[in-house]
Design goal:
Largest sheet: 6 strands, antiparallel
Strand content: 15-25%
Distance between the termini: 57 Å
Order of helices and strands: EEEHEHHEHEH
Number of strands: 6
Shape: extended
Number of helices: 5
Structural class: alpha+beta
Length: 214
């Protein structure tokens, strides 16, 4: 009996392609990801809290499609900040300032080592699953580059992708507006940000700078 071929890590990743910030799954589904800002709910007054809860309830009840809220928690990497402080230490010209900067660096190091400081990022995943045509398991199968494709077929594939993407973007706009009404800033991730996010998910040991809302 011949041994079964070993599967690579890529075989377990459900992503077929990331195009124009849109995640295309192997089963034909499409996903967009929104990065959402945090909200310090505990510091709000009672009336403000009630208003936020009411807005969020109205937002969720208004959706006619599902969404996924994903929270990424990881230990805060303080090394870039320490490196910045070390540069500032070398720039000081007086002995007193050097002592103060050095004491501050040691304070930060000691504090971080004794306290488990976590950073959190909040994401909303918005799905769109194109209708499956009879006889086709994946409505996007023909959209991917192939060496036998002609210019006409490629144009048709691009038009199909843009049509599906338009449907997905309408959902993204609805979610963004709902979050803004709750006092939450929201930004849709582009291709580079989506790739970076998934790279961090599959490589949790990597310490890269966090994704920022501009």
């Amino acid at each position: 009996m011949a041994p079964s071929p070993q599967k690579s890590t890529q075989d377990f990743v459900p992503i077929q392609e990331i195009r124009d910030g849109v995640i295309i799954l192997k089963n034909g589904g499409m996903r967009s990801i929104i990065l959402a800002s945090s909200l310090n709910f505990a510091l709000k007054s009672g009336d403000e809290q009630s208003s936020i809860l009411m807005q969020f309830q109205n937002f969720v009840n208004s959706l006619d499609f599902s969404i996924q809220i994903f929270i990424q928690s990881k230990k805060l990497d303080i090394r870039p900040y320490i490196a910045l402080l070390e540069d500032r230490y070398r720039e000081q010209t007086t002995e007193l300032m050097k002592i103060q900067v050095r004491e501050y660096i040691e304070f930060i190091r000691t504090f971080v080592e004794s306290t488990n400081i976590m950073s959190k990022s909040f994401f909303v995943v918005i799905p769109y699953d194109p209708a499956i045509v009879s006889g086709s398991k994946n409505p996007l199968n023909k959209m991917f580059p192939g060496k036998n494709k002609g210019a006409t077929q490629t144009e048709t594939d691009n038009n199909r992708f843009q049509e599906y993407r338009s449907q997905l973007e309408q959902r993204v706009a609805v979610v963004e507006q709902g979050l803004v009404r709750c006092g939450i800033r929201a930004a849709e991730l582009g291709t580079e940000e989506v790739v970076e996010l998934y790279y961090k998910l599959f490589n949790p040991g990597e310490t890269e700078k966090p994704i920022q809302i501009t």
